[in-house]
Fold Peroxisomal membrane protein 4.
Amino acid sequence: MATIAQQVNYLLASGQYHTILSIIKGFRNGAVYGAKIRFPHALVMTFLFKRGSITEMAKGILEATFTHSKNLACFVFVYKTLTNLMAWFETHEKQYQSFIAAFIGGYFVFGKYNKVNEQINLYLLSRILYGLAKLAVKRGYVPAPKGEVFPWFAAIVWGIVLWLFEYEQDTLQPSLKSSMTYLYHDSNRWNNFKNFLIYNK
């Protein structure tokens, strides 16, 4: 008689219930990936820029990791469920299905404001703007550039962000403002060798 583990392995290898199992695995992958991405980021940012007891900092790291992991897992679950449902009602896959599923998932999962969701949405915004610019060239909506574009892209991005930092700081995300304060303003302050080279004043 087959053991439970053998029966599970047979079910997974058989291809039965592939859609449901792919949704479950998507949820699992979202949770794991969210934790892998957020934990080291939260750990480094907390110890670099946050003040407080070890307990408070550890709590903040774990909360950020849990939020990122949970939200990514839930989004993958919603997205895969909706795209599979739409595919079930239609005879073949259509491009708008992925947009609609992600739109709904984005609204309900990543639409709630918190620092983690803000960072994820801003991360994606920069990537999609870059991707849309490349798509416009690919589809022929704009002519392909004759020279190198990346240096101009970098120049515009850094020019705008430093202008905002120096003159309109309240418009920037707090973590970006903290990083830039450390780099550009804290480097203007010292009164002895220790806080000049050993640690930041």
About this structure: The radius of gyration is 23 Å. The first helix runs from residue 4 to 14. Residues 4-112 form one domain. The CA atoms of residues 186 and 200 lie 7 Å apart.
